[in-house]
Amino acid sequence: xxxxxxxxxxxxxSECAELDVIRYEYHVLYSSSxxxxxxxxxxxxxxxxxxxxxxxxxxxxxxxxxxxxxGPWDTISQQEHPLLGQPxxxxxPCRTNEFMASVTTTSRKxxxxxxxxxxxxxIVGPVVGLSLPLSYGLAV
Length: 140
What we know:
alpha+beta, 4 strands, 140 residues, four-stranded antiparallel beta sheet, 6 helices
């Protein structure tokens, strides 16, 4: 016979597990102003409640957080998605061309093709929990 207390405990445990799971949605758009790709994303708990900016920052891996927090409003901000008109977080593209220049320069020197978008996503994605499968690296 099961006591009502253990049933309540399992319900609480289930509710806590739902609050711990975060669902991410990612969109890549092109910024004609910066002439670079831009990563838009949103995150919510399973109950549909969206994460706040401070909660997004808590999810940024420690190896990125300290450097990015030196100028957080230049890095991650919330704005309207240009196509959907809904609030999304965005990784600001202001330095994209700068850090991607080393990737494109090296690929030219070594006379090899590089998939720009895959390379870019493998650099910016992990900042906000987006990891690409290794098979993406094979696509040129």
